[in-house]
# Entry
Amino acid sequence: MLQYMGSSSYWHETSRHVPDPALAGRHDVDVAIVGGGYTGLWTAYQLREAEPSMKIAVIEREMIGFGASGRNGGFAMTLLDMSLAHLRRNRGDAAAKAAHEAVASSVREMGETIAVHGIDCEWKHGGLMVVATNNGQQARIDADLEAAEALGLEGFTRLSRDETQAEVHSPTYVGGLREDHCAVLHPAKLARGLAKVVGKLGATVFEGTSVDAIEEAGDKIHVTCPKGDVYADQVVLATNAWARQSPWFKRKVTPLYTYIAMTEPLSDEQWASVGWDSHCGIEDKRNFVHYYRRTLDGRILWGGSDGIIHYGGKIAPRFDRNTAILERLTGTFRETFPQLGDVRFTHHWGGPVAITVNFLPMFGTLLEGRMHYGLGYNGHGVAPSHTGGKILCDKVLGKTSELTELCFVDSKEPTLPPEPLCWIGAEITRRSLLRQDAQFAENKASAEMDPLLLRVMKKLG
Ligand SMILES: Cc1cc2nc3c(=O)[nH]c(=O)nc-3n(C[C@H](O)[C@H](O)[C@H](O)COP(=O)(O)OP(=O)(O)OC[C@H]3O[C@@H](n4cnc5c(N)ncnc54)[C@H](O)[C@@H]3O)c2cc1C
# Structure
């Protein structure tokens, strides 16, 4: 029987937050940043570090970390695209290496910034263990290790079946790899701690303030909010999944809901039966990955398994939980850790991530150089949004750098079809990916993606 006691996001519950005031009246700034998640906050941070006198307003509709940044699994990891092997195959060696190394640097730099400013966000740099639970997944791990070696990347180690199972005791593991560049953290505490730092550095954070329109007004950009207006030289759009609601990104991103279940704290005996002495994050190699990690108070966060796209890219509070997916999550948890058969689940929540056609984030500039955007992390934005903050900072300052040359900056972004084709296509893709996951589990399929899907994706971008 499902023992779900019902609660909201554990991260929100365990992070006290006194919101900043809403915006009222007229504000003239150098840069207005729309969206109070990691992308907006890291951009504000980088800008104030680079130009301490710059006037910056961060405008968040709900509260800091309300979006994916306050709800995620808390893995700061290097993953871009579907996998390292996929990134290399699609973008080539030089671009894949540069992109991977930029995000790996971000993992290091995030740790440094968190330490320097004393942000209490439970940062643990314990690496990532990627596990295979069948031969198809093992082939994907082999391909990633081959790509890492071909690109000369450091920090990847192959793990045998015995080594993987010795680290974490699950009978389902057939092999794995360890990647050093990964940390786990408390996502809402990071977002809110970062907002405080940004405020101390001199940016102004407004919460409970919806940006209703962004328009050119002479040599300024006019940002309209319910009780006030901002006139800015430049704007940064950092609304990720919500960008689908803006005219510029209707056909560029689609929100996908991903979900998490969290257990009660495990007893010492239960932990002894699992092993897992470190704070390494764990992901498997399904298309719809399972991602899981420990919390500081001894729970297991268990996420992934499936994802839902709603018609028209709709985002609404009623989608924040999904009983069917919760059942699936608890089921796969018990398959993975049969020794924890009676552990209870105390929290369940989800949130929207932004999916792009080519599975890469997108950074660029609109409104004749005066509005920059960074979004579309495909569910892996914790560390890439730090890289994104650096890219957007360079863009605002008009600088070209190694970062502004990355393959997902100012690139030709593929377009989604209009509704209802978008939703139908997304649903066909989802089912096909889930079918392949199921076939892998029965050791039936080859390790390649469905060839039809690959052809469609190639055509789109
Ligand atoms: C359940 C879940 C688990 C995840 N797990 C991981 C993980 O373990 N590792 C990982 O790397 N990634 C993970 N992700 C993805 C990661 O959280 C995101 O990629 C990242 O947080 C994106 O940050 P962001 O600032 O771009 O967007 P968001 O954090 O979504 O912020 C966008 C903000 O814009 C605000 N906004 C929208 N419209 C307006 C408007 N008109 N006016 C003002 N404000 C507006 C929203 O309220 C929101 O706060 C997960 C996501 C989810 C949902």
